[in-house]
Fold:
Amino acid sequence: MTKEKLLKRNRLRVNKELRNAKQRRFFSPATYGDYQVKVPAILAYACGKLIDIGCGDMPYKELILNKVTQYDTFDIERRVAEVNFVGDIQNMDMISNNSYDSAVCFEVLEHVQNPFQAIAEINRILKKGGMLILSVPHLARLHEEPNGFFRYTKYGLRSLLENAGFEVLEITLQGGIFSFLGHQFSTIFVCLFWHIPIIKKIVFFINKWFCVKPCYLLDKVFDKEKIFALGYICVAQKRKQG
Structure:
C-alpha cells in the first residue's frame, strides 16, 4: 500500500473512531480551534427543530441533541446510516419552506458551485427569525477534488448572507496560519500510525501536546490583527420582515 493510500484510509478511520467532536478536537490545531468556537455557538443558538446541512459523520450530534427538540440531517451522500435527506444543498426541494427553527452548516460552501443558491435554499427552509450557524474556510489546502471551489473572507461571507435575507449577528475567526500548518503536520503524523493499536495512542498524545496546543497558542500570540484566518464561523438570523 502506498503512503498516500495509507493516509487516506487512516483518515477515514480517525473520523469513524473519533465520532464526536469532544474526542476528535485534539486531532489537529484546526479541529481544536473549530471546537473552541463552534461549541459556544451551538450552545447559544441551536434551538427547536434543527437541520444539520452537510452533516458528514455528525461530530457535533451529541452536543446538538442536548439543545434541540428535533435533529434532522442532510448530505450529498450517506456517509453514516442516520442521514435523513440525501441531495444537493443547492436544491433541497424535498424540504418545505419555513420548516426549521435553526440550522448548522459546517465546511460545506467551499464545495458548492453556486453558494448564492445554496444560501438562498437554507434561508427558504428556515422559519422567519430562524438561526443559522455556518462555518467556512479561508486557508485550506485542496481537498475533495475536483469539488473544491471557493475560499471565503469575512467580508465575502457577510455579503453572501445579507444578500440572501440574513442578518449577521457575529463572525468569529477559527484559528490562523500556525493552525493551518499544524493541521498538515497532524494529518500526516497521526494518520501514518493510526492502524497500529498501541502506537496510535502514543502518537495522538504527542501530537496533542507538541503540535495542537502550541500551534493554537501561537496563533493567539502572533496574529493580533487576525488577518491569517484559518476560517470563520458565522451566526446569522433569517430576517423576520421581508
Observations:
- The beta strands are 49-53, 70-75, 85-86, 100-106, 126-137, 166-174, 231-238.
- The two ends are 57 Å apart (CA to CA).
- Residues 197-222 form the longest helix (26 residues).
